[in-house]
From TrEMBL:
InterPro entries: TNP-like_GBD (IPR048366), TNP-like_RNaseH_C (IPR048367)
Organism: Haemaphysalis longicornis (Bush tick)
PANTHER family: THAP DOMAIN CONTAINING 9, THAP DOMAIN-CONTAINING PROTEIN 6
Segments forming domain Transposable element P transposase-like RNase H C-terminal: 213-241
Domain Transposable element P transposase-like GTP-binding insertion intervals: 26-138
Alphabetized Pfam families for the sequence: TNP-like_GBD, TNP-like_RNaseH_C
Protein name per UniProt: Transposable element P transposase
Length: 455
């Protein structure tokens, strides 16, 4: 009706251009809904398949540190009401999930056909950041969540995304979903809007989060709060609520809402009227699938998570040590090199970070990594019989400390401290995992019961 097309995503009103944009959070949810099993997405000769995300999630249960820790049943499986939450879509289309899939491919847990899915998720993460930016300046050279400017990398990325999305084809009967057209219209609108704002209105940057409809949804939520149980006010009631809000202050929105609170102050504005990207690191080649298979897929995934866990332990432990402590060279690998398939997760997580092969990650020494694997075995063997004791940490320390060689610490005091740090950290992770499993297995209440409880 408005003659809006991906090529001309605007209409004119009173001689002025009005750019048409779809809400990016809704687009990301629609993309997830169209992709979710049993559908597939074809991009040229590549196939994006939800089954690989499901396989990743189901393979994470027994790992000390899950490859994608934020994924839950609500993210992966279609459940009542979970399609409404934006975070269930954005946390799937994230760099963490993309990296986790890449690790699964590298160790042979997933075949090479999953690579397009990992690449797709990474590009969707960057696209969402680009169209939902909130930082005026770049905080991470790998991210796109900062303002669009004349020299930023957003413009080239968005132009490439236009061609990329135009090649999408879902295996859905009849016509293709409107989501594809929605992305193209929105991206073209942002490009043309930025061009007009920068050339005609001297804009230095554009925060694309201000183009979303969250402020409008938050406002309507405040109006509904003014009427208690009446969620559908008539015209007179709406005007009365608008007047009340204009002279008062907005109600606090519920923390369980689906929209982020925006830092916009409408009343304060009424009187006004009208870095260089890090170079790619050269690393050793990944081991072949046959080499990894010989080690065992469950074992190699566990070793990857334990390697990252060991580095985290070293980093946190050394932060708390006095200046005279000499444990650093014994616990960390000062000259980190890629030496095995157990380092793939750490390598991919630190991709493009400055600071060496593993970026800001503290690589543990080989001796400490092996000691952590031994301590982990003792922990899993004894945590069940020690959990009920009053001094759980102390009881676990007595059986774990023998697995950490004394020559990895500068003193007996440091030896005892790092064993205690391991036990405390490991107990926290163990309890979190138990709670997650209990929550996962708990029977879900029906929608009717939840509504009755709310009433």
């Amino acid at each position: 009706m408005l003659n809006v097309t991906p090529e001309n995503p605007f209409f004119e009103a009173c001689g002025e251009k009005v750019y048409f944009l779809f809400d990016t959070p809704h687009l990301i949810k629609c993309t997830r809904n169209n992709l979710r099993y049993p559908h597939k997405l074809f991009i040229g000769n590549e196939v994006v398949d939800w089954k690989y995300i499901t396989a990743l999630y189901e393979s994470n249960d027994k790992l000390i540190s899950r490859l994608a820790p934020k994924l839950t049943d609500d993210h992966v499986y279609k459940r009542p009401f979970n399609s409404m939450k934006v975070k269930f879509a954005t946390q799937v289309f994230s760099q963490t999930v993309s990296t986790a899939l890449s690790v699964m491919i590298a160790v042979g847990a997933l075949d090479g056909a999953a690579e397009p899915t990992a690449t797709f998720i990474e590009r969707m993460d960057n696209l969402f950041d680009c169209l939902n930016s909130k930082h005026p300046k770049m905080t991470d050279p790998r991210k796109y969540n900062f303002a669009i400017s004349a020299n930023s990398k957003h413009l080239e990325f968005l132009r490439e995304a236009l061609e990329w999305i135009a090649s999408w084809r879902f295996d859905i009967p009849r016509r293709q979903p409107h989501t594809i057209r929605g992305w193209r219209v929105t991206i073209q609108s942002v490009l043309m809007l930025w061009e007009e704002l920068s050339q005609n209105f001297d804009f230095d940057c554009l925060l694309t989060r201000n183009l979303q409809q969250d402020p409008l949804e938050n406002f309507f939520g405040s109006v509904r709060q003014k009427h208690g149980c009446n969620e559908h006010p008539n015209v007179l009631q709406f005007i009365a609520a608008l007047k009340h809000i204009s002279v008062g202050k907005l109600f606090n929105l519920t923390s369980r809402g689906n929209c982020e609170i925006q830092d916009t102050y409408v009343l304060a504005r009424l009187a006004q009227g009208n870095p260089n990207e890090a170079p790619l690191l050269e690393v050793a080649e990944f081991p072949s699938s046959s080499e990894v298979s010989a080690e065992g897929l469950p074992d190699i995934l566990e070793q990857n998570t334990l390697f990252c866990f060991s580095g985290h332990l070293v980093q946190q432990f050394l932060k708390s040590r006095p200046a005279e402590c000499a444990c650093g060279p014994l616990l960390r690998n000062e000259k980190a090199v890629f030496s095995g398939s157990h380092q793939i997760l750490a390598l991919l997580r630190s991709h493009d970070e400055p600071g060496g092969l593993f970026g800001q990650f503290t690589a543990p020494s080989h001796g400490f990594f092996e000691a952590v694997m031994d301590m982990e075995k003792e922990f899993l063997e004894h945590v069940g019989v020690c959990a009920h004791l009053h001094g759980t940490v102390a009881a676990l320390q007595t059986v774990v400390r023998e697995r950490l060689p004394l020559n990895l610490c500068c003193s007996e005091a440091c030896h005892g401290d790092i064993v205690q740090h391991f036990c405390r950290t490991r107990i926290v992770l163990h309890v979190k995992e138990i709670n997650r499993v209990l929550k996962k297995t708990k029977d879900r209440k029906s929608a009717t019961k939840r509504k009755l409880q709310k009433v």
